[in-house]
Amino acid sequence: MFQFHFSPKFLFFTLKLGFLFIGIGFMNSSSAQTWKNMGATGYSGGMAWHTASAISKSGIAYVIYQDETKDDRASVRSFDGSNWIPKGALGFSGREVMNTSIQFDQKDTAYIAFTDQYYLGQVSVMKFSDTAWEYVGQDRFSTGAAHFLSLAISPDGIPFVAYSEYDSSMELKVKKFNGTDWEKVGLPNYLARKAYNIDLKFSPSGNLFVTFSDGNNGMKASVLEWDGTDWKTVGAAGFTQELSNYNAIDFNNSGELYFSYSNTNNQPKVLKFDGANWNSIGDINLPITQSYQNSFVVDGNNIPTIAYTDQNFEPFVISFVNNDWISTNNDLVSKGIFFSHSLFIDDNGFAFLSYVDQLSSSSISAMKLDGVLPIELEDFTGEAINQISVLHWITSAEINNDRFEIQRSTDGINFKKIGIVKGNGTSSARNQYSFIDQQPIIGAINYYRLNQIDFDGSSKLSKIISLKFKENSVAFLLYPNPAKNNLNVQIPNNRKGLTMKIYNLQGQLQWQQSFANPSPIIQISLNNLASGLYHLVIEENNKRTETLQFIKQ
Question: Could you give the residue ranges of the DSSP H alpha helices within 344-423?
Answer without folding.
Answer: none
